[in-house]
Design a protein that fits this description.
The protein is α/β, with parallel strands linked by helices. Strands 5, 6, 7, 8, 9, 10, 11 and 12 form an eight-stranded mixed β-sheet that branches. The protein is globular, with a radius of gyration of 26 Å.
Length: 384
């Protein structure tokens, strides 16, 4: 029976006169119109599956499902508000200040009458920061921040892992500070919360993003404090900062543009995996090296820089750090040393999940029990 059907089809095709069909009635498939257009979020996931499955091996399935799940947030207490009242209200929600709990727990205690060994200087945290999180496995949400009694917002909701680069920077009173890629403003706000900034330069190339930064500063920081801290907001090309203000700052934060992995899996708007942004995405590591090199050049000899991204990619993380250090050594004869953050990682292991195998720096990886990050950060000291 099947053979008869096949022979019948062949006979029809043999004797069919396709030329008699008028041209206007012939069907020509329009591939551009009919090909499925994959959303950027799907292209991002495909990219991550290919690259991160190799980079992280058996850890990738756990990281993957966490990235695709709802993110956890922390509440950074605004020290310019009624901070003790705000902290008490957050404690009533059963949230805990992970920063001060970790620092208190990490203070060394003398054993057998011997003097306690202090932690290394590189692990000193920037002071005066309070950030509340819910316990591991607790997926409760914080209420939206509201205007407090002092005319500024009570707290700032952020990925709590985003506070780690600011903590690692180890600000000291009277520091001159540069936030080279400052928008949308969460880390800039945290820098101001420390009370250490004698001068703070907050820069971002995008004028629309610096608009968001200014909005955050106006909502959280009183005018007199902004004036007293001499906050300067600019929209310059950060790659040129070493030429503009070389050897100037005690502390520099370089939180570079990256593939923003979690955002790229959830939001189509401003997604760097859009087909039109392919070249921009491919050029990211070069841009990141240039920005980090500029940040190091803007730092005084003896000053410190923290480089950070919200990407899991070692091409945007460790490789960028190593590339920038080599660039400064070869082109400027400047020595830069990476600082050991092992003690720092141990301080915050109860709140975050850290990847155990970074070549340099530290990486917070998303985990369903503690779904923060990703957040990579590396602390460097400019020696010469």
């Amino acid at each position: 029976m099947a053979a008869l059907v096949v022979r019948g089809v062949r006979h029809m095709l043999k004797h069919a006169d396709f030329a008699t069909v008028p041209r206007r009635q012939r069907h020509k498939q329009k591939w551009a119109a009919t090909e499925p257009k994959f959303p950027a979020t799907r292209l991002a996931l495909q990219n991550f599956d290919m690259t991160y499955s190799v980079q992280f091996g058996d850890l990738w399935p756990s990281i993957r499902v966490s990235l695709l799940s709802e993110q956890k947030y922390g509440a950074l207490v605004n020290n310019f508000a009624a901070r003790d009242c705000v902290s008490a209200e957050l404690e009533q929600l059963s949230a805990k200040d992970f920063v001060n709990e970790a620092i208190f727990r990490g203070d060394p205690e003398p054993e057998n009458g011997q003097t306690a060994v202090p932690p290394p200087a590189s692990s000193a945290c920037s002071p005066n920061l309070r950030c509340f999180t819910f316990a591991r496995g607790d997926v409760s949400r914080f209420p939206n921040a509201r205007l407090g009694s002092l005319g500024v917002m009570d707290y700032y909701l952020m990925d709590a892992a985003s506070l780690l680069p600011v903590l690692a920077l180890g600000l000291q009173p009277g520091d001159t500070v540069l936030d080279l890629c400052a928008a949308p403003g969460g880390k800039t706000l945290a820098l101001l919360q420390t009370g250490c900034c004698r001068n703070l330069a907050a820069n971002d190339l995008s004028t629309s993003r610096t608009g968001r930064l200014l909005k955050v500063l106006h909502s959280y920081v009183p005018q007199d404090v902004r004036d007293r801290n001499r906050v300067r907001v600019t929209s310059w090309d950060g790659r040129k900062w070493g030429e503009l203000e070389g050897d100037t700052y005690d502390r520099v934060l370089v939180d570079v543009p990256c593939t923003t992995d979690r955002h790229s899996l959830h939001e189509e708007e401003n997604n760097i995996f859009q087909r039109s942004r392919k070249k921009e995405r491919q050029m990211l590591p070069l841009l990141q090296v240039q920005l980090l090199a500029a940040g190091l050049l803007a730092t005084k000899p003896g000053g410190h820089v923290v480089y950070s991204t919200c990407s899991l990619s070692h091409l945007q993380n460790e490789y960028v750090v190593q590339g920038a250090i080599e660039l400064l050594a070869n082109q400027y004869s400047i020595e830069v040393q990476v600082e050991d953050l092992t003690h720092f990682r141990k301080l915050f292991m109860d709140t975050f999940s850290f990847f155990p195998s970074c070549q340099v720096g530290e990486l917070v990886i998303p985990n369903l029990m503690a779904n923060f990050g990703p957040m990579y950060f590396c602390k460097m000291c400019r020696v010469t």
